[in-house]
Amino acid sequence: MSRRAIPALVLVIVGFIAIVYAGRESPVAADPEFSAQSDDWMPAVSENRALTGSWFCPGVPVGGEEGVGGEVVVSNRFDDRIEGTFTILTDDGVGATGLLTIEAWSQSTIDVDAFVTTPFAAVVVELDGGLGFVEQRAEHPAGDSVAPCANAPSSEWYFADGFTVDGSIETLILSNPYDDAVVADLAFATLAGESTPAAFQGFTIPPQSVKTVRIAELGARDEPIIATQVTATSGLMVVGRAQHYLGGGRLGYDVSLGSPALRDQYWFADGERGDGISESYSIYNPTDHDVDVDVIFLGLPVEANFGDVAPIIVPARAVVVFDPYDEVAGASIPDGRHAAVFSAPGEPSIVVERVITRPAGEQVATSVVLGAPPRPDGYVATRWHVGIGPGQPTEEALVIYNVDNVDASITIEAVGPAGPSAVPSLTDIPIGPGAVLAIDLTADGVIGQELIISSTNRMFVERLLPRGAGRSGRSGSSALPAS
Predict the structure, then answer these.
(1) Residue 392 neighbours by CB distance under 10 Å
(2) Do the beta carbons of residue 338 and residue 436 sit within 8 Å?
(3) Cβ 401 vs Cβ 436: under 8 Å
(4) Residues 300-357: pLDDT tens digits?
(5) b/e code 254-282 from CB counts within 10 Å (16+ = b)
(6) Nearest to 264 by CA among 232, 241, 280, 287
(7) Calpha distance 195→21 (Å, rounded)
(8) Whole-model pTM above 0.85?
(9) Is 239 helix (H, G, I), strand (E, B) or coil?
(10) CB 314 within 8 A of CB 291
């Protein structure tokens, strides 16, 4: 029997006990402390009221060039209006502030480049009552990119993938939302080993400002893989990464939020094999000891039984690129979609990002997505939120992996002034045990709307959005789980 056909049993066999024992019935009404737990989890939508809810967006390009800009979208998931404030941070400090009023079950958009002109700007949003969530869209001639904003700053941030081949530009965006300066250290790892640039040991991010770092200027030029660790020795910060791919088999533009902590598991709902598609996983181990990482490919038919994948050895303070078609007999993974889970038994020690480059008209489009970890208590959501969806009919816009080894059904609701309403053509969609499902968003009622994806089982959800302005190809990002 294929391990890929029995994901729930697989989890037990390889020790992913936290998820299995959390149970499919766990995501009932969460206790109040769960909203705090999301701070060291992944960006998540709170189910509980609070005095305020703060969101920290990693940054958008607003330098004034033609076709370059950014916006922040605030979604009110409550049946009453909410009010709040926003603060735009630049390299010169606070660039603008403003008030927000978001009517019940509606959205408000902050057009960042209408307020400031600077290479990158980060945005902090504070919402009274806490019942809202925030995402950002970076706009660029090479392709638009959507990313969730963070629930909280952190003293450490990690990226497993980075790329400067053929002049590709990788820029770190470090924002300090507080009144005191942040002091931080930077380290990065390439195939040649670890580097700790002297100029970026104990460097300062001034209060309420943004500092940008071009990785190539630190000496990492023409590198096919660069992993990065930023650690604050004083204060808290938010770190994003802007990646402009210009060659070396990658093209496009991507802005994403880093990981605020190391994990022991990362799940990817989307993965694909097909003509012209390349797929790889960057695994970063910034700890002082070697780590063995297990990988299992899921959502494949029973006949695709290619056997075990040998553990991936990731040395201390190093990054390893895992290409599933180099490591596994290529013919064993059929064309089409698959999911994957990476696990490092023991204490949290790794960061994993997936890179997929797909054909896009006469060119290609590259997208990088950080894996989704379960919450530290093992919880995996049955409901996920999308504030920024496709602005045009889009096939295979959502990719869902059913974690549990039983059949499930999925319902998608579009959010309008009267609240969430199930879309008739997207109600009770069947998904098999441990299966991957791509869902089209082509119905009139879902275009340009906030969406809620609910399942009778636990699941992981990614979205694949058009790159904007008539460009071919897609940009991938995670949806936000309900906490």
Answers:
(1) 13
(2) yes
(3) yes
(4) 877 666 567 889 999 999 999 999 887 665 556 888 999 999 999 988 999 999 999 9
(5) bbbbbbbbbbbbbbbbbbbbeeeeebbbb
(6) 287
(7) 40
(8) yes
(9) strand
(10) yes
